[in-house]
Amino acid sequence: MLTHLLLMRHAKSSWKDQSQPDHARPLNKRGRKEADIIGQTLSAKGFAPDIIWASDAERTSETAARLISIIPGAQSIIRNPEFYHASAAIVIAKCISQEEPSGGLMLLGHNPGWSELALHFTGREFNLPTAGCLVFKRKDENYEDWISPKHWHLADFLEPAALLAGRDDGNGF
Predict the structure, then answer these.
(1) What domain count does the chain have?
(2) Does any domain span residue 26?
(3) How are strands ordered across the β-sheet holding 51-55?
(4) Are 55 and 109 in contact (CB under 8 A)?
(5) CATH number at residue 132
(6) Partner of 59 at 20 to 30 A CA spacing, among 14, 35, 111, 122?
């Protein structure tokens, strides 16, 4: 059974090479710092994911790789081409089609779909910044419809700019 669910937007990508296709854009220097601080914070707060389901774009793959290089313990990344610029409805349908994983699951992708997912789970508007991460804790032990928002409550909102500036108040939001 999942204990926590994380929704994270990829870290900041590079626009240095304008000829590069969107799918192939890597992280820039700021993006690498963002991914690192989110990984450190998730680990410190006990919210490290056991598995990451990520878009197969270069920037999400690189974000995921940086996270697992920082977080101790066994984690795995499953790259999903369907998550590339997916709507919330597509991500939810993909999750429903999968067996519920155990431990902590991170869904890692792109806006606007990830901001739509935030709305789905919280009922309020979020414009997730790059590397923004919402942390949800399980409310109950219902095994059916595990992706339904009724089973989750928002425990933390990690914003990399605040974390990098040292302004996190301990609540994350």
Answers:
(1) 1
(2) no
(3) 76-80, 51-55, 103-109, 2-9, 133-138, 152-158
(4) yes
(5) 3.40.50.1240
(6) 122
Q: Which domain holds residue 45?
A: 2-14+37-164
Q: Could you give phi then psi for residue 159, rounded to 5 degrees?
A: -110, 120
Domain-embedded: residue 173 = no
40-74 pLDDT tens trace? 999 999 999 999 999 999 999 999 999 999 998 76
Q: What type of residue sits at position 30?
A: R
For residue 124, the 8-state DSSP code is S
Q: What DSSP string runs through 39-87?
A: HHHHHHTT---SEEEEESSHHHHHHHHHHHHHS-S--EEEEEGGGTT--
Residue 80 forms part of a structural domain: yes
3-state SS class at 1 = coil
**Chain position carrying tokens 């590397």:** 131
pTM score: 0.93
Strand residue runs (E) in the chain: 2-9, 51-55, 76-80, 103-109, 133-138, 152-158
Find out whether 164 and 33 touch, Cβ atoms under 8 Å.
Answer: yes
95 part of a folded domain: yes
Residue with tokens 């500036």: 165
What is the token pair recorded at 142? Answer: 């219902």
